[in-house]
Amino acid sequence: MPEGIFCNKRPVETKERLQDVLGDKGGSQYYKEMESLEVDVPALKALLKKTLKSRLKTWLGSCMRCGLCADSCFLYIANDKDYRQVPSYKIQTTLGELVERNGEVDTKFMIHCMDVAWSQCTCCNRCAMYCPMGIDIGVMFSYLRGILFSQGFIPWEMKIGSGMHRVFRAQMDVTTEDWVDTCEWMEEETEEEWPGLQIPIDKENADIIYTVNAREPKHYPEDLAHAAILFHLAGESWTVPSEGWEETSLAMFAGDWQAAKMQVESVYAAIDRLKPKRMVVTECGHAYRATVTEGPYWAGIKNGKPPVESLHYVEWVAEALRAGKLKIDPAKKIKEPVTYQDSCNYIRNAGLADDVRYIMGQIAEDFREMIPNREHNYCCGGGGGLNGIGRYRKERNIGLTVKRDQILATEAKLVITPCHNCWDAIRDLEEVYHIGIRWSFLKPLLVGMVLVPEHLKLAEA
Description:
Elements: H1 15-23, H2 28-34, H3 41-51, H4 54-62, H5 74-78, H6 87-100, H7 107-119, H8 126-130, H9 137-151, H10 156-168, H11 176-191, E1 208-211, H12 215-219, H13 221-234, E2 238-239, H14 250-254, H15 257-274, E3 278-281, H16 285-293, H17 295-298, E4 309-312, H18 313-323, E5 338-340, H19 344-348, H20 353-363, H21 393-410, E6 414-416, H22 420-433, E7 438-440, H23 442-447
Parallel strand pairs: 1-2, 1-3, 3-4, 5-6, 6-7
Helix pairs in contact: 1-10, 6-7, 6-9, 7-9, 10-15, 11-13, 18-20, 21-22
């Protein structure tokens, strides 16, 4: 069976292979090779037999084609209610047909499945809330992505992303040395203004182990400094691990379940080694989902829970505010109209909407809800890996119009986005549509408005 140099069924597992695929700028040769990539039908049949269990079979068979899921999908709305964007139609014409034909499919069909799975679904799971049969099409598309990955039919960027996790245990080429150096650098940069502040590395038995998104040490190291300042002000006993610090999972987006397992087990190994009481996950929705919600199952933990109690960053902030560990200076509250992007992965899929509203009540004088909001809010428009796939940039930009219109309706100019995918999507939304908004994570806003205890104030010269 012919396989290309770049596009093939083999996962990227070495730095050399990673550099080779990265060298194919934009994936031009990769996608040309994909057009000739043959489907291994026997392997596909075997995979379906092994992994297609009763839940998925029931869902595929119980869909009534009622169309009640249609308006739940932001991509259906953004594309003028094209029937081809109805969630049930999308899954039945991809996974449904694949199952019905028992894997007897060709290259053209698999490329079609890839295009639908990554450009017409962000796995936000909103449609599941409105299906009268309780069918979760987001989960089904995640399963389809895994099948496509096994056959080599995945977007170029997803191939690279899963390779990064296999090689670096991070979504970017950040080594252990890079990470430790960044922590030490941020501590040095911050300690002059905040005497006594530390970014403890590999501290055992701390109350909190803090895990991050690799983009932070790679591109936004000040985010780590902001986290350190807030932990310092709250008087927390905390640490970061030298290894197992990255909690995101592009492997999850890619459907590379083996790499997803490797990634989350590196985090759990750090917990086992350092024995913290709890884990706090940075402002990232899919990282929380990968490490806290899905991760235990990939790691084979029978009770479905991570090794220690685990909090998304908004949970920790709400807790610190409620307990008085952090206090907001009333004079520094946000005065202008502000709105909040509810992340699919920690609001709809983890139920943290009340914590978010408590935080907004503490920090903003004119908080304006998007409509709809909380667990009913729409995906940012770039989740599930869609933000980063060049092949589907046009489709992503069309999808952003739903979030654009939600934000415009609030008349807010500041959007708080405690999730990396949401942050990226709303940044790109502004670059594409120029609606005159700003966007921010929570940490930099909080650092600018919290009261500093007397004993932590910088002594005047």
